[in-house]
Amino acid sequence: MKFLRDLLDKQKPLFQKGGKFENLYYLYEAGETFMFSPNHTTGIKGTQVKDAIDLKRMMITVVVALLPCLLFGIYNVGEQHYLAVGEAVGFGEKFLLGLKLVLPIVIVAYAAGGIAEAVFAVIRKHPINEGFLVTGMLIPLVVPASMPLWQVALATIFAVVIAKEVFGGTGMNILNVAMTARAFLYFAYPAQISGDQVWTYLGEKTAVDGFSGATALSIAYSAGQSGESVTSALASHNSAIGDQLYSFANMFFGFIPGSIGETSALMCLIGALILIATGVGSWKIIVSGFAGTYIMGLIMNIFAANEFMAMPAHYHLVMGGVAFGIVFMATDPVSAAQTERGKWLYGLLIGFLTVIIRVTNPAYPEGIMLAVLLMNVFAPLIDYYVVKANKKRRLQRATV
Amino acid sequence: MSKLVKLKKGFDIKLVGKAEKKIEAFQPAQTFAIKPTDFVGMQRPKVIVKEGDTVKAGTPILFDKKLESVLYAAPFSGEVVEIKRGEKRKLLEIKIMADKEISYEEFDKFSETDLKSLTKEQATAALLKGGVWPQIIQRPYGIVANPEDDPKAIFISGFDSHPLAPDYGVLLKGQEKYFQAGLNILKKLTSGKVHLNLDQDSEVSPVYAGAQGVEVNKFSGPHPAGNVGVQIHHISPINKGELAWTVNPYGVVQMGKLFIDGVYDASKVVAITGSEAKKAVYTKTYQGACVDKWVVDNTKSDHVRVVSGNVLTGEKINHDGYLGYYDHQITLLPEGDYFEFMGWAKPTSTKLSFHRALGLLSFLSPNKEFALDTNARGEARAFVQTGVFEQVTPMDIFPVYLIKAIMAEDFDEMEELGIYEIIEEDLALCEFVDVSKHPVQDIVRKGIELIQYS
Question: Where are the FMN phosphoryl threonine modifications (chain A) (predicted)?
């Protein structure tokens, strides 16, 4: 790798103070530190050796945890397509079709967000934020495969600029960046990210008879309106296309229509295991998030004013984006609660809110997005009270 | 009431290069130095001697104009050869060329019965005159104590849990008599108790075994269990307006020697540690010794950093630099000024990490000793990871909130979040584990100074 190092060293003066491309220093720096960890040493006073971790490694861990969701999502896009048009093809073909549809979205998200990052880094003179490694992967996974690429680009730029960079970059933002991108899409272009027609890519072909393309959540929601039991509504959709399409197992494994990376609770759990084992994601938020969802599901069962409310509580865990949202969005260390006690409450409330929004919001059966964003806003308040309790302990001690 | 405190939070940094438990003789140091920079919070150091003066061990060299009664003494007899100043004439070092034979200033000796009848004022006066007062550190702030104060208690941490820390059993071997005399003196200085805090997980060293008249508490757990600040937090935390004093066991012994033998004895045993040390052993020397004799011909490569103290709180010094006043250890580390291809992504089992993020495999071998270099391992960023600082801080304190309060210079928040209870060393592990590479200890000192001078 010496030639690479030599090349970088040769270019460096151009980007340093007084150099020709002085303004682009942070672009050079991003490339340099990506290829080589810098030769900085510890200071004269203080800690003389350092832990081997850095932010880049932490962020790439999240990206790796997302890979199962991404790979399965790619496959499932193909699976749903061929199911809808009634063709039986092999694994390879399904995967290839998925790749053809998903890869451009990933590339566009990374490119659009990357450019926004770079522009900010140059203007504001700060290093390029590693957080974008994760955001760029999260955004493609929470949109349907049929999403127009320009909308993906727009949403990514909006999220990077408005949700993150205006606050000062990674570590300073209030809202989860990827969730902001999704919320932007939902409110700006609802036709492309809601309803029954967007979740399955049909291409030039026509769907088989009886194909609805609905997500499990929207079926459950309309069942609630019409008074049919949710489980039987899901089962009757089963018979229309494919065998047992909306069975609990299928919803758990993820062979259902939905956003690219969100359908499989199993893949999210694998991601959760990676995040928990590496300590990058808070297990407290993940556990309490799932617990909150389940508990509120049970509470809804008790009231059961309509059939959606009567739906078995564990169905909430595998439908829609709950698993993905709790594992990858709620655990964002920057926008989540930061105190350990606060994390319990934060996760629990996200679970509660998700179910409440699901069963009571007439417009939008997916609740996790709004729940995470809302709790992002309330996380500092939760922390405030946890920290206040600590201060109070300290004060009480003083009078003793 | 004696206490047993079990601490779970913390992290032991296991490094290659622990000093063998034997005392080896190196060439004696030719120069000694007093560095005013070793005394945190010293504001206006004033040198009493001139270049060319001859001094004895115990001759006052220096004092702080803000606390004039405290004298700082020469550790060895000889000629003052250089008074080194830095930018803005900041006083850096006062160097003494050592005599062949050490000669001592003579101070009053006390018999055991004299010691018993000594009043606080007499004891204080003798400690000040004899130059050992700077061994007493005041909490909050971690500065040299003001003799006019009455601390609520005095705390002595009987062990050091820092990486590669020396064993006090070796450092203080055979000093039982002086240690007890020192304790007797300290008891006179406070209206409260004198706490001696020992390590539950290892054998009680003979020097402490017979300690009388003090409260003995036991601590167990990983570093920072040996930090006196952590111990105070669990025994009797410091609130706003309260004062406690802390003394290192070496300081206690030094006090005992002053009263029993009537001399300022700055001799000490120092551990030479670190992965780059050919011979990691203990050696006998004096405070402020030049380290060159222990470094030359004793390092495995040419590119070595010499640290006075340990890897968490120590200070980088030159290869012919001087041992810090409060240090009993030097650490020899490989310099880490190299680029590493894909260093942030490459799996590694040779670098230590508290974290387990992708490819950080050190957690698989919890007992392995690592040879760490001084590479900073990444660039400074905003706070991202949460909850980690709490895992290495065994105190009821929110380190991140405290650090942010200091950065925002929010005085009320700092007070309420516990600035009085900590000094740099208590959050040193946070600096080590920090993903975002903040200079935590610098920030802590800045906060303390803001509070102290406000």
Answer: 215
Contact B362 A52 (CB under 8 A): yes
pLDDT digits (tens, 9 = 90+) for B272-305: 999 999 999 999 999 999 999 999 999 999 999 9
A202 in any annotated domain: no
**A52/B353 CB distance under 8 A:** yes
In angstroms, what CA-CA distances link A129 with A21, A119, A230?
A: 20, 12, 44
The reply to whether B289 falls in a domain is no
Q: Which residues of B touch A342 (CB under 8 A)?
A: none
Q: What is the pTM of this model?
A: 0.93
B418 touches chain A (CB under 8 A): yes
Task: Evaluate whether residue B340 is within a structural domain.
Answer: no
The SS3 assignment for B256 reads helix
Provide the chain B residues 318-377 that lie in CB contact (below 8 A) with chain A: 331, 333, 335-345, 348, 351-360, 362, 372-377
Task: Convert the pLDDT of each residue in B193-238 to its tens digit.
Answer: 999 999 998 888 889 998 999 999 999 999 999 999 999 999 999 9
CATH number, residue B66: 2.40.50
* Mean pLDDT of the residues in chain B: 94
B341–chain A nearest CA distance, Å: 4
Contact B428 A127 (CB under 8 A): no
Closest CA to A207 of A75, A73, A82: A82
Query: CA A212 to CA A256: how far, in whole Å?
Result: 12
- Residue B306 domain flag: no
The residue assigned the tokens 């939070």 is: B9
Tell me which residue of B272, B273, B150, B256 sits closest to B207, measured CA to CA.
B256
Where is B333: in which H helix or E strand?
strand B329-334
User: Which residue, B209, B207, B211, B212, is CA-closest to B174?
Assistant: B207
More confident residue, A222 or B224: B224
Half-sphere exposure in the Cβ direction for A186 (13 Å, CA): 20
Structure tokens at A193: 């990210």
Q: Is the peptide bond before B224 cis (omega within 30 degrees of 0)?
A: yes
Query: Distance between CA atoms of B104 and B75, rounded to whole angstroms?
Result: 9
Same domain? For B145 and B89 the reply is no
CA distance A228 to A236: 11
pLDDT of residue A389: 94
Task: Name the token pair of B182.
Answer: 């020192």
**Are residues B376 and A42, on separate chains, in Cβ contact within 8 Å?**
yes
Tally the domains of chain B.
3
Same domain for B121 and B48?
A: no
* Structural domain of B55: 31-98
Of residues B372, B371, B329, B331, the one with CA closest to residue B166: B329
Pick from A100, A93, A59: nearest CA to B344: A59
Q: DSSP for B381-434, please give it.
A: ------SHHHHT--SS--HHHHHHHHHTT-HHHHHHHTGGG--GGGGHHHHHH-
Residue of A nearest to B430 (CA): A47
Place of tokens 């050796």: A49
Whether B315 has its CB under 8 Å from any CB of chain A: the answer is: yes
> Domain limits at A323?
257-388
Cβ contacts (< 8 Å) between A278 and chain B: which residues? 355-358
- The pair of structure tokens assigned to B142 is 């971690």
A277 and B356 in contact by Cβ < 8 A? yes
Contacts of A279 in chain B (CB under 8 A): 355-357, 388
The span from the CA of B84 to the CA of B47, in Å, is: 11
